[in-house]
C-alpha cells in the first residue's frame, strides 16, 4: 500500500513560532523596546510562516494530484513567492493599521524581504522532503516488483520440477521399454533435453523465443508419448520473431495448463495452437472441460502475468468464450540500451 505524503503539524507550528520568536529578539534587545511592536512582529512573522507552510504543502502534487516538476526552480516556486508577497503585504497593512505610528515604508520593505527568505526556505525544505518521499516510493515499488518476480520464479521452479510430470514420464518410458517401442531411445533423449533446458534456464529472466520453442518441442514430444493423438499441438510462429524474448517456460506452462483443465482423449483430442497476432503470441485451445475438474489456485496465469509486468510493463490478455480459450502474450523485443 502506498504511504501518503505527510508533514507533521507539530513541526509546522513549532518552526513557525520559533521564527516569530527569533525575529522578535532584535526588538527585545533594542533600548527603545516597545512591547506592542514586539508582539506585532511576532504575530506577523508566525502567522506568515504558518500560512506559507500550508500553502506550499497543499500546492504540491501529493495533494493536488497534478504532475509535479522535478526542477527546484519551477512555476510553483514563482507562484508561491507571489502569494507570499501578497500575504506579507496584507499582514503588514493590518499591523500598520493597528500601530499607525510606525514608518510603513521601511517596515514594509523589511517584512517583504523577510517573507521572501522564509518562503524560499520552506519551499526548498518541502521540495527536498517530497523528492525524498518520491524516491522512497520508487524503491518500495522496485522491492515489491522484485519480490513478486522472485515469487513467480519460485512457483515456476516448483512447477518445472513437478514430481507428477516426472512420474508420468518415467511410467511412459517403462511401458515403452517393456513393449520394445522403437521410440524409447528418442523419448529418453527428449526427457534429458527437457530437464537440461530446465536447469540451464531457471536463472534467466528472458529467453530467446527460438530456445523457448525448442524446450516446448521436447515437452510436447514427451506428452504425445503419453496421450498420442489425443493431443494436437501446432505452432505457426514466423522465423522473423525467433530473436525476440519470452520468460522461460511460459509456453510449456500454458500447454500444461490446457491439459490440466481439459479432456485429452483419442475420441476428444485437445487442439492447442501457438501463433502470432500483431505484437502478441497467441496460445489457443478448444474448451472441453473435465467432468471432475482439477483444483486450481489460479496462480499459474497470475505468475506469468506478474513476470510480464516486471519485464515489459505489459500484461497478458485472457480471452474466452464457450468454445475456445486464448492467452495473448506480449512480444518482448530487444531494447537497444539493454
TrEMBL record:
One GO term of the cellular component aspect?
membrane
Q: Which domain of life does this protein belong to?
A: Bacteria
Please name the taxonomic classification of the source: Bacteria, Pseudomonadati, Bacteroidota, Sphingobacteriia, Sphingobacteriales
- Entry-linked Pfam families: His_kinase (PF06580)
One of the entry's Gene Ontology molecular-function terms is: phosphorelay sensor kinase activity
Q: Where is the Signal transduction histidine kinase internal region domain?
A: 152-230
**Has the keyword S-adenosyl-L-methionine been applied to this entry?**
no
Q: What is this protein called?
A: Histidine kinase
Annotated membrane-spanning segments are 12-29, 35-56, 77-99, 111-130
**Which key words tag this protein in UniProt?**
Kinase, Membrane, Transferase, Transmembrane, Transmembrane helix
Record's InterPro entries? Bact_2-comp_sensor_kinase, Sig_transdc_His_kin_internal
